[in-house]
Specification:
It holds the Pfam family RecO_C. With 259 residues, this protein is α+β, with helices and mostly antiparallel strands. The protein has seven helices and eight strands.
Amino acid sequence: MLEKLEGIVLRTNDYGETNKIVTMFTREKGKKAAVARGAKKTNSRLSGVTQPFTHGHFLVQESRGLGTMQQGEALSSMRYIREDLMKTAYAAYIVEMTDRTTEDGEVNLPLFNLLQKSLDYINEGADAAIVTNIFEMKMLSQVGLRPELSSCVVCGETEGKFGFSIRENGLICHRCTGQDPHFLPLFPASIRLLRLFYFFDLERLGNIDVKEPTKKELRAVISMYYDEYAGLYLKSRRFLEQMERLDYNFQSKEETNDD
């Protein structure tokens, strides 16, 4: 039976001398793998459409084992992601997180839409770091995590100065910081953005201008939270952190030279 699937390529693995096993996250079937025969050949009609991040329509011949990809048509090749190393690093992290937190065949339309929109935004030139932070906050429910971001996790107050308590699993106000001496003090802007990223609809993303110190805080608190609770150790995140450090050092040198 032939199936037409709309999917996003998460990864590929070599299969023999000329073939690939292509793992996609699809709208209709969730995560699904198929053999793309001859896709490693540069002149293959499946070569381009099976590149990582590609969003397209795929015609898959079902079988008892892995299906076989017969045709593919790119809706978006995500060209501008692949042409930029920093964008590639963020996109690779997003797709690996999707891959590692989903099981084969589990349909999840909200996640498909989140993944597609996140890659589209990065490809179109939106701030890749911020889009990635939004993706991470939206993915918390996918990995079974629900931090308290509406009020103080200890006393329930909604007014005051807040930090983030990894131990208590959410925001903690200035009245309750004694409950966790290792809480993370955060800029008010970081608190607002954590709440915004967790609750708002990604479709409504406009121009968000975030200062570098706030970006560093967001990266630190989100990474620490995932490290503590999610148990995800992603190669792409280590690469992304290296790229962010290089980018930050490069920007710092440019600012020093301008002075």
